[in-house]
Amino acid sequence: MTDDFYRRIGGIREPDPTLGKNVPRKQPSAPQPGEDQQPSPQPEPQPPPKIRRQRVVLAEPSRSPSSLRARVELEQQTSWGELLIKDLIKVQLRTGLLLTALVVLPLGALPLAFFLSPDFAELRLIGLPVAWLLLGVAPFPLLFGAGLWYNRLAERHERDFVDMIEN
Amino acid sequence: MQLNVWALTGIALVMVVTYYLGQRSSRFASSTHDFLVARRTVRSRRNAAAISGEYISAASFLGIAGLVLKEGADALWFPIGFTAGYLALMLFVAAPLRRSGAYTLPDFMEARLGSTSLRTLSTWFVVFIGVLYMLPQLQGAGIALATILPAPAWVGVVAVTVVIAFNVMAGGMRAITLVQAFQYWLKLFALAVPTFVLCVVFFGSNGAGSAGGLSQEAPPRFTDDTTLTVETDVLLRVDEPTSVRVPADSPNVTVWSPGTEYPVAEGTTLWFPARSDVPVVSDGALQNADWLRPAKTAEDMLGTYSLILATFLGTMGLPHVLVRFYTNPDGKAARRTTVQVLLLLGLFYLFPVMIGALSRMYVPQLLVTGNTDAAVLLVPSQMLPGVAGQILVAITAAGAFAAFLSTSSGLLVSVAGVIATDLLAGKVRDFRLAAVLTALVPAGLALSLPVEDLSLSVGMSFALAASTFCPLLVLGIWWRRLTWTGAMLGMCVGGGLVLLAVALNAISERTGSWAPWFLQQPALFTVPAAFLVTVVVSLGTARRVPDDVNAVMLRLHAPDPLGFMRDRAVARFGRLDERPRSSRGGGRHRK
């Protein structure tokens, strides 16, 4: 998985570290007042040996005005915002249908194949009936693999979408 | 059946641990938010274990092995479908459903389509499916307890009902999450250990069971002179002339011939001589060769497709499965949870199939008595006489009770949540009241209705869920032009057809089993019918597309970091008297 910052914490949502920060920008947009308030991480001085109270601030993720405008446009359903979200829905649905086909076609063909070809249904591999292996063991890795792949694709689409909005 | 002290201890231990964990984690439950969705803060790993623990019901733990014993290869589609249902759920429902911020399924319907009558209808379907699903769990508890103890069936039903009712009343979803996660691992252990041990015994005995190896063509055989008590009304058939005494102490021997079906009433005793073939109940596979081969006839094949459709699409409509997805922090976590569920379920379902195959070789008498669901509990003591076998029985019995407890407590939470928020005022007090009422109804039904095959009645709930909620969820999430009229008619048509099939099936069982396959597994027709009606009626009532459809779609599909997700306001339901500790409420951003 490319985004191991999610893995590290057991699948619990943390704010995407690329969000609202100007790290991955391809072209630096015009300097905006909002970004000035985000100091770049400066090297921390060596922590003193004794334990000090650390101050943790939970704030709203600061966003640059341009991303805020994009959000507002999305929310107000301007033609542009509507088109964007429609595209996202379409691409997610297409991914889902593709993976469904990937799983259902091989699995769905099995009963028909067993019915049409009794030889196939009675085939044996080192003494074990192939039909039992195909039905009792093989589908589970297939299903898990499909789930893993879909998860990766869907998260990539969402990340792309967020990147697009932020820019 | 002699008293098995080990098994009794195992069951008692599971009950006590369940009760303890439930009470311990419910100390922190104070608000409606805790009771309904555990504050939406369940981590994906624990949530995945809890979902799997809740999902592995009596039908999975006992029923699959029983069906494999009886029907052979075709029964292998049950575990596949039970698992694949989660893939469908993940691909089309999980993340958007979580982002909708609803508390219950009717909540989602109202948020999406803005109709209160649709909400009421789906409330009733949730309650109905929940009770229908809880029924076999409680009956399974009765069967299991009667199999290993000299106790009447009602003891198991009552014990399970009491434990889950107390846990759910004490802490709702907050209480049962930890319990169910624990019970998944317990169940996996309780089936994996006996399977490994029995496989070692099996290969140690040169790969042939006491009733003959599986590769021989003939039916399984009795090893000794055998006397059996038939536990339900059955129709038996044989493959070659078999001598039998009916009842077992009658002086004269009758000969059963192939090609005839012999009705045997409940409570009848039968005697078979050693080395005779084991008769099989009429809908089971008689010969091992047939048993090993999937999809022998066109009916088998179509029935299999129908089952595939019901289980693939039915999982997403089960209320207790959906309610667990609302406990995830956000949509992305909901998807991650599902991936882990696919792994956990795939791991578990390897074992009941193996136990089912072993039981064909070692306890073929279950094919005569019709009590195939008890296979998991009886194989260990049959294969391993003595204390070792009894300990294995105790382990599987404990696992079976974990299955009854976790599934029925999940169902109880989801149904009680729906009743509390939709029919009552939605306060914590209402939730507790709803939990008591919901626990009493299925318990009463379980005590009064006859017992069917566990997996089959569960299969019917899947068909019902697939033909009612699945079209609504899938179309509601991905199709803008859905209207509440279309949704309502689709739900009525799909649900009505399944209920008709259930009714005809029940009539046919009392009047000579004339029901064709599509009445026993109707999803192949009812699901497309429900989809078709929903789409056609929605297109016909295009004026009623809700005005806010674009806003709702945005909320369902916009990625979580953009922050469009709105959880349903807690304030609408009121709280317990003391305020929750976080005054910001919502708990949306909390880990």
Automatic annotation (TrEMBL), chain A:
It comes from Prauserella muralis. Residues 1-52 are annotated as: Disordered. Keywords: Membrane, Transmembrane, Transmembrane helix. Residues 1-16 have a biased composition (Basic and acidic residues). The chain crosses the membrane at residues 96-117, 129-150. Residues 40-49 have a biased composition (Pro residues). It comes from the Bacteria. This is Uncharacterized protein.
Automatic annotation (TrEMBL), chain B:
One of its GO terms (cellular component) is plasma membrane. It is found in: Cell membrane. Its main location: membrane. Gene3D superfamilies: Sodium/glucose cotransporter. Coiled coil: none annotated. GO terms for biological process: plasma membrane acetate transport. The keyword NAD does not apply. GO terms for molecular function: acetate transmembrane transporter activity; symporter activity. It is a multi-pass membrane protein. InterPro entries: Na/Glc_symporter_sf, Na/solute_symporter, Sodium:Solute_Symporter. The keyword Calcium does not apply. Belongs to the sodium:solute symporter (SSF) (TC 2.A.21) family. This is Cation acetate symporter.
